[in-house]
Each structure stands twice: as structure tokens, then as C-alpha cells.
Amino acid sequence: MAQHRELYDVLGVEPDTPTPKIRKAYMKLAKKYHPDRNPGDEEAAEKMKEISAAWDVLQDDEKRAQYDRFGLEGLQGAGGPGAGGFADIFDLFGGGRSRGPPTKTPDMKHGLGVELADLYKGRKRKLRITRSVLCTPCGGKGGVDGKEAKSCRSCNGQGVKVMMRQIGPGMVQQMHVPCDACSGEGELLDAADRCPECSGRKLMEKSEDIEINVRPGMRHGESIVLRGKANEAPGLETGDIVFVVQEMEDERFERRGDDLFMKMKLSLIEALTGFEFNITTLDDRELLVKALPGQIIAPNQIIGVPDEGMPRNKNPALRGNLFIEFSVTFPDVLPVEVVDQLRQILPEATRPKAANPNAEEVHLTVKHVEGQSRQAYDEDEHGHGGGGGGGVQCAQQ
Length: 397
What we know:
It comes from Thecamonas trahens ATCC 50062. This protein is of the alpha+beta class. Among the domains are: about 1-100, Helix Hairpins (Orthogonal Bundle); about 250-360, Urease metallochaperone UreE, N-terminal domain (HSP40/DNAj peptide-binding domain, Sandwich), CATH 2.60.260.20. It is about 20% helix and about 30% strand. Residues about 75-85, about 95-100 and about 385-395 have low confidence and may be disordered.
């Protein structure tokens, strides 16, 4: 696994992601956090700086290779975004702490897709992970019989050398390049003294099962942290694995905060005279939803069932509400005798009758089909209208 992930995590991609896909991720995030879309939002502005800084490095093959090998420290002096070069990156990622030697291995971040039902009920999930741990046979020393690598004299154990390159008349660029003596490792160990298990790398790959606790009411974007489960490295505290909850779409319910929303179709007679239907909740209970006596449901009306929404985060005993958005299906036509009966039952119409006896009488016989008016307009604009099938449908008489 890659040791340096900060810039990849900012863009939500893996270290082996090809540049075109990284660019796609960058464009998506840039649109979301652009200052024009978030006026006055300091958090969004800071996020935009991080996104731009990460993209500036990862779009360039040379800078990306330098970062993959040496992390943020390897970018110093290489030139970079803004007047401050890559000094700005150190301030963005860790408040400048990256300038000093690291004391902890980088955290490992992963997205965790979770179904809405699991966020409703809570669930313990088991996953298998593979990470780098200190080599057991050599105790993370890299050598056999307790032999340890010696600091490289060529680079003073830094793994990089400072190189000056002239880029123009009177202009010199300072660059950090991998030390050729130690291949950028910062230390040397004779081949005969290297541990046969890890080949002197001090680390080995280990697979293990972990358990993740998804709590009831957790939200999209919330983190589940497993302390000390990231990659290990000699002399460093082990970082954390961070799983970021990614709520998956549900075919029946839509979550909005602590509330749930669903859609229900009613016939006209149900909307006028009453109805009852069952709902299976996310924890597999059955609810019987009934109209109140005399209750009439209007098209697109939204009515809520109290305390049947999502559990409140960190207080699952409290719940939001379940809201139902009703659509009402009307009959296409009614027999004349039925219309007369309805006039006797329903309240009288309040719209005044037309007063102009000379008005031209017309009838509603054309049904609008969504999208066809726009299509007909486009065809006229391009000179292709007429002659073909129409953009409307006539009702049968």
C-alpha cells in the first residue's frame, strides 16, 4: 500500500488511479466547492485550496512520482502552486507540521457503502484488510542477527539530495532528487545481511479481519475510526484506518436528515373516501396507514407519520418522522350521469360563468406529451418542421 496518500485522499482517488480519472475527480470537486457556488463559505474556500494544490501535483508525472516516493517533503524546492511554491501545501495539509520529521504513519481512508436499512438498525460488519506491519523475524530492523542498516553518508540519511538546475539566464531552480547511492532509502544494508523474509525492507504484508460498528442513525460522510490499524513503519506511531460512510440509495425511502420520505399512489376514490395500506419499515415492522374519517388527500400532498423516521444520531431512542407524498390518479372520462350525481354531492363551483355571449366556444382535446413541444420548437429552429408525425396527441371523442 502507498505510504503517502494525503493528496490522493483529498481528491477521493486511489494512488494507482490514472491521470484522466484523477482529472475527472478534480473537476467534480472543483465544481462543488468553487467560491462562486459557495460565497462567503470559508470552509469551502479552504477545501478548494486543498483540491487545487493536490491536482497541481498529481497532474504532473514528475511531481507525482516525487510525491509517491517521498511524500510532501520530497516536493520542497520543486516549484508549485502559488507564490509560495509548495510551502503552501505544507500549511494546507497539517498546519505546517509536515515540514518536520513525521511521528506517525499516514491514516488510511476508505469509503464504506452502507445500505439505508443498516443505518436505520445499526450493524456490525466484518472486513478483511491487508496492511504493512513490521517484519516479525527481524523485528523491523531489516537485517539478520540483529544487524541494522547504516545511515547513507552521501545524503546524510535524508534519502534525497539537493540539485541546482539552471532554467534560464540568471535563473536557477533548486530541486530535491532521490539519492542514487541508497536509492532514496536514506540508509544502506549489505545484501548478505538483509532479512530473507522482508529483503531488508523491514516490513511485511499482513491480512487480518476487522469489525466495523455502524451505529443506528449514522449519516453520509460520517467517519468510523479504527485506532492504530494503518500501515506500520519503524520508529513511528501507527496511524488510523478511517472509514467514511457512504449512504446507498434505497428503492422505497429517501432520507432527509432524520426524516424519511416515500411516495404513494391513490385512486381518486381513495383520495376522496378513505384508504388503508401497509408499509414495511426498514427494520421489517408492518405499519397500517389509514385515513382519518372524512380526510381528503389532495394531489402532491405530503403528510407525516410521527416518530417513524431515522433514529437520531447518538440518541437512537428518538426518531424523526416518516413523510408520505401522495399522487392521485384521476379517471380519463366520467359518464354524464355520474357527473350529474357529483354535482349534487360536491360543493358548488365558485368560478363565475362566462359573461360574454359572443365568446368562441372551444374544447380541450389535445394532450400534452412532455418533451415534444421542445422537440417541435427545435425542429422549427433548424428548418425541419412539418410533414412528420405531430408532437401532440388528440383525445378520442
